[in-house]
Design a protein that fits this description.
Structural class: mainly alpha
Shape: elongated
Low-confidence stretches: 1-7, 9-23
Strand content: under 5%
Helix content: over 70%
Largest sheet: none
Mean pLDDT: 82
Number of domains: 1
Length: 146
């Protein structure tokens, strides 16, 4: 009986060690995914601001709206990365950096929306196209987060 006990204890210790390491590495992967999602969210928000800021008239609005398919794909990447992160938030340093980076973008976004929307609103076709693209962004993000 004594001869069997030692190998069982060693095997159990090995299994527990592997489980602990696996759990730690999974958490580390989720933290990296959360940080990556946060960085990508900042980049995509910047892209969206640039897109809206490019709208100066009907022609530029049509061009900007045509580029929103690519933006939808980028938003989907944010959703994919967030899904990989699960419920794990970015670490405090990454969260603080994202908050710092997003603050001026939020102000910029507000100005860009206030400038672009009246131009889009002047044409029902532009309104529909813009709404369709925004729906596409939402759909792609929902699909990517499943």
């Amino acid at each position: 009986m004594k001869t069997l006990f030692k190998p069982i204890v060693i095997a159990a210790g090995a299994v527990l060690s592997c489980a602990a390491l696996s759990s730690c590495s999974e958490k580390a992967k989720q933290e990296r995914a959360a940080e990556s999602a946060a960085e990508t969210a900042v980049d995509v928000t910047e892209d969206y601001c640039e897109l809206l800021e490019s709208i100066k008239d009907k022609e530029s609005a049509q061009k900007a709206i045509a580029k929103m398919d690519g933006l939808a794909d980028k938003f989907a990447k944010v959703a994919e990365k967030s899904k990989k992160a699960g419920d794990t938030p970015p670490d405090a340093k990454a969260q603080a950096k994202m908050t710092e980076d997003m603050k001026p973008l939020q102000d910029r976004m507000t100005k860009a929306v206030m400038s672009a929307m009246p131009i889009i609103a002047t044409d029902p076709e532009l309104q529909k196209a813009f709404t369709d693209k925004m729906t596409l962004i939402g759909t792609k993000m929902a699909e990517a987060s499943k």
